[in-house]
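Entry for the shared binder. Reason: the reviewer on the internal report wants the predicted structure included alongside the sequence.
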Amino acid sequence: MKRYAFSCCLLLASLFLALPCAAARDGVTVAVQGGYQCEYGVDIPFTRSARTSDYTFAIYAGNTPEVQANVTVTTDSPVVVHLPLRYDPAGPSTHTLQVTAHVAAGRQGLDREAALSRTFTTAPTCGCPAGTAGAFYVGDGSEGAPFLVASTDQLQHIGSTAHLQKKSSFLQTGHLDFEGQTVESIGSLNSHFLGHYNGNGYTVSNLNLQNADANGLFGYLQEATIENLGVVGATVPSGGAGGPIAGVAENSTIRRCWTKGCTVSQTTFGGHAGGLVGLLYSSSVVQDCYVQNITATADTDAAGLLGMTGEVGAAVSASNCYVDGMTLSGMSCGATIGCWFAPSGSYPTLYCLDSVSYPLYGRNNQTSGVTGTKVPALTPSYLSGFDFTGVWEMKDGLPRLQVEQPLS
């Protein structure tokens, strides 16, 4: 009796976001067992034996398989077998791949099953060398396959020269806590963040930022999008413009974001401090955001939401936002906007309570327009423009974004 043998090329270097489970590739059919699913996984280059087309692929992280799949290969050419695999997106992890070849129909008694195993370690998918602090292990940075951000190191790595201005997309996978760390803003006046960051409903908490010219989790945004992100308990120290989400936003979009319990101090000459953004200008958009319990201090403009907005020739847009709880100090203080500097514009759907002692805006260069509305209660009946079907919900007596993930 002959011993069954097969050749295979196990080059485990390519790790990508997954195709849908059991998706067909030319000459390959993959049927994952047990309903196992993951949005990412491993791509395995493979060449079948000429004597069989049927295999079982199994990946182990320990003594039991993490995922198993029945694989049929109908071509003699090299193929790629994709398997979903829940490996750690925050860093390298080691696994064992076992491929078992099954005896083809009509060859019983001539061949027998055989198995081959190889050990592999996941590698960065972002082009950074293995061992780089904060390197990304899932995704390619495209809109369809964003880099997954699963650690504080990875969030900080966005600010590196390898990624800051590459217009990449990022997706946060869980709450991130910077307790005990002092970190830099992502982007500055001289080097802007140009990408798309989706917080996925999670928070970044206990940020203690270094002094910077533009200060916030994101220092300077240019043609960027920040969405579905909360910042909790941040300390934003002195600079030119500061806010928990962003210091400066130029021609950028910020939507479905929130901040809670943050302190912003922009005491440098001419500084602007906001509970969300320090300086919003050049056709930027803020939509469906809220600020709770902000302390903002500035040499010039301090506000519950936006320190300063607008510029000559380019109006900004801000809508469907509210501020609840604020302590402001500066030359010009406003519950919603500190300095309203724009050729035109009206923001009636920015809200705060009637009981707030600060004016809706601190100063402006306009003779007409509305920079917000004071209301008796932050409830649906008073919050005109808010979508309580698809975006907002009432929770613990206040409007909350439906995208928010629970902290526990």
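Summary line for the report: The helical segments are 152-157.
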